[in-house]
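lol ok so funny story. i was supposed to be doing the assay writeup but got distracted and ended up predicting the structure for this chain instead. priorities right. anyway since i did it might as well share w the group, maybe its usefull for someone
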Amino acid sequence: MSIFQVEKRNPGAEKPNKLRNRGLLPIALVERSHVTLPLQGEIAELRHALAHLDSHGRMELNIQGEKKSRRAIVKQIDQDPLRHGLIHLTLQEVADDDMVRVDVPVLAIGHSADTEAAGITLQTITDHVKVKGRVKDIPERIEVDVSSLHTGEHISAGDIALPEGIELISPPDATLFTIAIIRAVALEPATEEEPEETADTGETTEE
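and the output, tada:
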């Protein structure tokens, strides 16, 4: 999990544009009490932190002047539509016992013997499911065994086993994996014998 160093910000002290020109980004942290705490942090350091989030978008937040770090999830990232630069970041503080709804990656494990045939493959239709549970119980990923899957069959979200305390929010009939025929095996077309050509001698027949 990434660690991001920030400091508290006085919203009236400096305009956001000037802040960004100094390489700092305005940040809003929604605390567990639902109060919004204005912060600021270095854009370069933030980019590194965003690239090393865990699978649920969480990071450790170290606020200058506070002895303990806070755990937060990324709620919203605002970017300039033309330059694609970062404009603002909104974080949500969470604790281990907080109930959250998050997307969890699903990973196929095992090998279906059917995929050894030509033109048959395992297809991933959806690579995540939305679940609800306590932060401490949310798995990093969910592994799904596809070894017993046959051609034309599929595994849906409702088929997977979830850890205790985790509730499925995604539609149960949402397809995750399927064994599909991606192309027909081409047969060699039969070749027709071409008629023999008669040599032209250039002679004419007199009547």
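Residues 2-94 form a domain with the Ribosomal Protein L25; Chain P fold (CATH 2.40.240.10). The chain has two domains: 2-94, 99-181.
back to the writeup now i swear
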